[in-house]
UniProtKB/TrEMBL annotation:
Residue positions binding ATP: 114-121
Protein's UniProt name: DNA repair protein RadA
Encoding gene (name): radA
Organism: Cellulomonas fimi (strain ATCC 484 / DSM 20113 / JCM 1341 / CCUG 24087 / LMG 16345 / NBRC 15513 / NCIMB 8980 / NCTC 7547 / NRS-133)
Protein function: Plays a role in repairing double-strand DNA breaks, probably involving stabilizing or processing branched DNA or blocked replication forks.
UniProt keyword terms in alphabetical order: ATP-binding, DNA damage, DNA repair, DNA-binding, Hydrolase, Metal-binding, Nucleotide-binding, Stress response, Zinc, Zinc-finger
Extent of motif RadA KNRFG motif: 271-275
């Protein structure tokens, strides 16, 4: 009797525990796919908040069987596939075509992200109007503004055309209905975070809603060979808002950048299935609209007629595009125990490092001086190739001696005072020669024996002392 009593509890208690353990739902991160046995507020892999949700799997985790379905078209040899239908169509905006790789491919989905007020809607409204003028039918769906507000902007920038159709909708089913009725040649959706589907729980802009809206729009684009441009919001750190899968689903991801107090706007492609990702488009945003800048270097160079101490020109690379930029420095005696170090458009840590190298390796007295450094035209210089121009500008201001006109400096400054070579020196010097510069201070050996551009005298230097001597500003 005691054996029976002792045996029954082991059976009745062990079996339910195993069943509960096998049926226990798991939790999965919607951003990276990380799984956990219990819910947590923050993903343990990608550290994203609020992305872990219950994932019981289809059929409660049971294996799935998929029945075969008839194919739409038989598989063909790859060399027999028609590629003409996949050729990029120009948008009419040369700077945008440069970034996209020649234009928009039929059926491609492009995500354009940027901060509020940077000019995303203005650019796309101009693109839509240019496409309508070529005979294509364009559907512009706005979920952030009313149709009247978009109409006012279109009138201000001259983007009115009968083939440009406008709708203000926030429901996904209604948007797809407009696509069915209009049958457009180009669809602009502004923005993907404002559209919601009634079949999915959650508010517009949530993880589930953004994924559902994007998947539905992509399905419509691929089935109709319809090029689509989606406007996306960004977070405080500048990344695309919403689930990370949004960037994986679309074909092209573009970032629209620009300072609020500057007219310059830069367009970069961070993902492009049809073209390069190292091209940059430059635009000028004004009250009358946005225009492409084929030669934006003039925005970053002052128009002073006489040489001024504390200014030096350099050539930076934005992707594969060289841009001439002027760096200005002002060194003045400090009236406080801790001298000021103020920058605009220059990384403050790079300035601190260059000043320390100047004082230690060159003997420049800067510890009791206020140093103010800025770029012209609101340009932002982040690459180390501008270190030499920054150093020469600081020395020029400290010695109150202007650099020779027509001088450009390119190179990275090391902690030992050496001048290191940088990438793309040939392209930088070609741009300098095109703009009329006559002398260039570059790192020694950066040309590898190649001939410099016509009309440009190259002065190779190995350290800061040689660079200062070549520029003619030494004490």
């Amino acid at each position: 009797m005691s054996d029976a009593v002792g045996t029954v509890p082991r059976v009745t208690t062990t079996t339910p525990r195993r069943a509960d353990r096998s049926a226990r739902p798991g939790f999965r991160c919607s951003e990276c796919g990380w799984t956990a046995s219990k819910w947590v507020g923050r993903c343990g892999e990608c550290q994203a908040w609020g992305t872990v949700a219950e994932d019981v799997g289809p059929g409660g985790g049971a294996p799935r069987t998929v029945a075969t379905a008839p194919t739409r078209a038989p598989a063909r040899p790859i060399d027999e596939i028609d590629v003409e239908a996949a050729r990029a169509r120009p948008t009419g905006v040369d700077e945008l075509d440069r970034v996209l790789g020649g234009g928009i491919v039929p059926g491609a989905v492009v995500l354009l992200a940027g901060e509020p007020g940077v000019g995303k809607s203005t650019l796309l409204l101009d693109v839509a109007a240019r496409a309508a003028r070529t005979g294509r039918r364009v559907l512009y769906v706005t979920g952030e503004e009313s149709a009247g507000q978009v109409r006012l902007r279109a009138g201000r920038i001259g983007a009115l055309h009968p083939s440009l159709l406008l709708a203000d909708e926030t429901d996904l089913a209604t948007v797809l209905g407009h696509v069915e009725v209009v049958d457009p040649d180009l669809l602009v959706l502004d923005s993907v975070q404002t559209i919601a589907s009634a079949a999915v729980e959650g508010t517009a802009g949530g993880v589930a809603q953004v994924r559902e809206v994007t998947a539905a729009v992509i399905a419509a684009a691929k089935s109709r060979d319809l090029p689509v441009v989606l406007v996306g919001h960004v977070t405080k750190d500048g990344s695309v808002a919403g689930p990370r899968t949004l960037e994986h689903l679309v074909d092209v991801v573009c970032q629209f950048e620009g300072e609020r107090h500057s007219r310059l706007r830069l367009l970069r492609a961070t993902k492009n299935r049809y073209g390069p990702t190292d091209e940059v488009g430059c635009f000028d945003l004004s009250e009358t609209g946005i225009i492409g800048l084929a030669d934006p270097s003039g925005l970053f160079v002052s128009q002073a007629q006489t040489a001024v101490p504390g200014t030096c020109l350099t050539v930076t690379l934005e992707g594969r595009r060289p841009l001439a930029t002027e760096v200005q420095a002002l060194v003045a005696p400090s009236a406080v125990p801790n001298p000021r170090r103020t920058t605009s458009g220059i990384d403050s840590s790079r300035l601190a490092m260059v000043l320390a190298v100047l004082q230690r390796r060159l003997g420049a007295r800067l510890a009791d001086q206020d140093v103010y450094v800025s770029t012209v035209g609101g340009a932002r210089v982040v690459e180390p190739a501008a270190d030499l121009a920054l150093a020469l500008a600081a020395v020029s201001s400290r010695e109150n001696t202007a650099l020779p006109r027509g001088l450009v400096a390119v190179g990275e400054v090391g902690l030992a005072g050496e001048i290191r070579t940088v990438s793309g020196v040939g392209r930088r010097l070609s741009e300098a020669a095109r703009l009329g510069f006559t002398r260039a201070v570059v790192p020694a050996g950066s040309l590898d024996g190649a001939a410099p551009p016509d009309g440009l005298t190259v002065l190779p230097v190995a350290d800061l002392a040689q660079a200062v001597a070549a520029a003619g500003i030494g004490s």
